[in-house]
Amino acid sequence: MNKIVNSKKLEKIKRKAIENSVPIIMDDTLEVMEGYMKDIKVDKILEIGTAVGYSALCFSQFLNYNGKIDTIERDEERIKEAKENIKILDETYTINILEGDATQILPKLNDKYDMIFIDAAKGKYPFFLEQSLRLLSDKGIIFADNILFKGYVLSDYNKHKQRTAVNHLREFIKLSTENPELETKILEVGDGLAIIKRK
Ligand code: SAH
Ligand code: MG
């Protein structure tokens, strides 16, 4: 492990995010991801959806020495707060915020990432998956949060006002589970977590 983040400061960032209704990663989801990250060699992480930097700071503890995180965020207020949080905790400049819309930024990236965390606009999940597969290292792993969206995705309820998002999440699940080159698990932790690897 690269470094230990000051857990009291991280806890404070977490509490503030919850108070301000920032949709940060849920504890049980994080726990599952940490279990995987402990077992793989993670040099580069890509995150789609930084918010205030909480999940990126959590992941930074599982990077190898000299590892890096690129994380994408489009909301200016959140970028500002994420920068402040990162400045407090990320003494080794591990976390790099890519500012702007992920749909524009992703096609311009050309690095390979060992872990990709999809945690942004649900309506863009199929596109995020396509781009993530292009950017994933051979042994890399993709996690996608909120994949079950409060249970709507697996229910047959279709009249919800969020049905466009739900349809895109269903499409994401179909694309990943029906791709013969991929091994996909959908876990009912938090708001639903998809775990995708190449076979
Ligand atoms: N990963 C964070 C939470 C992210 S919340 C954590 O667990 O701590 C989702 C974030 O994605 C929001 O801040 C939102 O502004 C951002 N977002 C949504 N769609 C986006 C897009 N298309 N491009 C960039 N950022 C996006
Ligand atoms: Mg989420």
Q: Name the average pLDDT.
A: 93
Instruction: Kindly name the structural category.
Output: alpha/beta
Q: In whole angstroms, how far apart are the ends? A: 26 Å
Number of strands: 7
Bound compounds: S-adenosyl-L-homocysteine, magnesium ion
User: Strand order across the biggest sheet?
Assistant: 3-2-1-4-5-7-6
Output the number of helix runs. 7
Portion in beta strands: 15-25%
Tell me the radius of gyration: 16 Å
Q: Give helix and strand order, one letter per element, not per position.
A: HHEHEHEHEHEHEE
Q: What's the main sheet like?
A: 7 strands, mixed
Helix percent band: 25-40%
Unreliable spans are none
Overall, the morphology is: globular
Report a brief summary of the structure.
With 199 residues, the protein is of the alpha/beta class. It has seven helices and seven strands.
List the helices and strands and how they pair.
Elements: H1 7-19, H2 27-39, E1 44-48, H3 54-60, E2 68-73, H4 76-89, E3 95-99, H5 102-105, E4 113-118, H6 125-135, E5 136-145, H7 163-178, E6 182-187, E7 193-198
Parallel strand pairs: 1-2, 1-4, 2-3, 4-5
Antiparallel strand pairs: 5-7, 6-7
The chain binds S-adenosyl-L-homocysteine and magnesium ion.
